[in-house]
Design a protein that fits this description.
This protein has eleven helices and no strands. By secondary structure, it is an all-alpha fold. Among the domains are: 48 residues; 100 residues.
């Protein structure tokens, strides 16, 4: 029996090492592809002469599976309504992708974790437990965490570059351009996430959507109060008329003042936020060190009812600490 257990552990370790090596190779290949794409415009080679690499073909094959799974999921009316919440994660350059593709990835990652857990219990000669469904749920909601982190970065970039867009729009209005031309100027002059959003705005307006609907969709995608302020100002100007240059000059001044205050606030609270983040991860570091030194140190905590009560109490205190300190550090301007 010990020999079987040792063999199972060695197979599991070999499997994990193999997965780690594959992920490392994939990451290096993705980085090299990204660098090649950056230098493509400066090279003299023709695109038609280039053959797709193995990893390009592999990712194309994976996307074909995702798209086929998406067509299957589209038959469900519940999932069709559920996909609307993922529209904001689709960027303009990835417009061939659909929100249903994200749901397909969630299901596929969930099944991957489910089968990895089954593989683990088969190696350890264990019985099937409901934890397998927890593994599926973890894999299902893992893309949500990654997408939310990417969305917060994107939102931060839009907030930082929105003032530039307002300045360009104000200069366009001063030169006699209309709203459509000002939006076109912003999407052509700027780069990054703001340009991506203004391309979506311009596309919505070319499809005939009203100004109010276009900027309300912009607000729903980004959820910034500044975008709501721009939307309400443009809607009022479009309905009642007025001097658009004066209105946008006021918006530009208010945005500049707000950004200046935000930068000052960030410089004042950066040390506190850094200490807060260290204190969040410090317990896990200590727990990891203790488990390395003594793997059975916390075993008595989970072998009695009192231990579970203490563990629940500690977990509640930890969550309350995070919530309260985040509320204290969060200052709205």
């Amino acid at each position: 029996m010990p020999t079987i257990s040792l063999i199972s552990i060695s197979i599991l370790i070999s499997f994990m090492i193999g997965v780690g090596i594959i992920l490392f190779v994939l990451y290096n290949e993705l980085q090299s592809i990204k660098l090649m794409k950056r230098f493509d415009r400066f090279s003299l080679c023709f695109k038609a002469e280039e053959e797709p690499s193995f990893f390009d073909r592999f990712f194309h094959f994976l996307w074909k599976i995702v798209h086929k799974f998406s067509t299957l999921l589209k038959k469900s009316s519940v999932l069709t309504r559920y996909q609307n919440r993922y529209e904001k994660y689709i960027s303009f350059k990835d417009k061939e992708k659909q929100a249903m593709d994200i749901i397909s990835i969630k299901f596929l990652v969930g099944f991957l974790f489910f089968f990895l857990y089954l593989f683990f219990i088969i190696l350890r000669h264990l019985f099937f437990t409901p934890i397998a469904f927890l593994a599926f749920l973890f894999g299902f909601f893992l893309p949500d965490i990654i997408l939310n982190i990417q969305f917060q970065k994107r939102k931060k970039q839009v907030r930082e570059d929105l003032l530039k867009a307002i300045i360009i729009m104000n200069n366009s209005f001063k030169s006699g351009k209309n709203i459509m031309q000002a939006i076109s100027t912003v999407k052509n002059e700027l780069t990054g996430q703001v340009a991506d959003e203004f391309k979506k705005i311009y596309l919505d307006m070319t499809y005939g959507l009203s100004l109010e609907d276009v900027f309300s969709r912009f607000y729903e995608r980004i959820s910034l109060e500044e975008t709501k302020y721009i939307a309400s100002s443009l809607t009022l100007l479009n309905k009642t008329g007025g001097n658009i240059v004066e209105v946008f000059s006021t918006i530009e001044k208010s945005f500049f003042t707000k950004k200046k205050m935000q930068d000052e606030l960030h410089s004042l609270t950066s040390a506190s936020v850094f200490v807060f983040r260290i204190l969040i991860f410090l317990p896990f570091v200590f727990i990891g060190i203790i488990l390395l030194l003594n793997p059975t140190y916390f075993a008595p905590l989970f072998q009695s009812f009192l231990g579970w009560v203490l563990f629940s109490f500690i977990l509640i205190l930890y969550i309350l600490y995070i919530v309260i300190v985040k509320k204290v550090l969060k200052v709205k301007i």
